[in-house]
Amino acid sequence: MRKVFSSIELSETVLxxxxxxxxxxxxxxxxRYSGRSAIxxxxxxxxxxxxxxxxxxxxxxxVVDTLATLAHExxxxxxxxxxxxxxxxxxxxxxxxxxxxxxxxxxxxx
Length: 110
Known about the structure:
The chain is an alpha+beta fold. It has helices at 10-22, 56-72; strands spanning 2-7, 27-30, 46-50, 79-80, 87-88.
């Protein structure tokens, strides 16, 4: 296992993990519940780890591309899911509500 990303924003780590999984990497989040720390002011960042260290370079490319897309499309208009009609941020490739791809095709289960 190898860490490829960390952030104090859980939403960022979820987006990165999902992008990695969508690209075929086995990825997990560590410290997901760190915001519930009993020590005030102490919150370790959530981390995204991939299962296979040899995939690090290609996984990091997915991370960098995902973060660049988020930064680039942050001002773009949201899109509506063709399946559930939920509004999704422009940077999302999959519907956050039902998992359907932006182009309308169902997302394969993993």
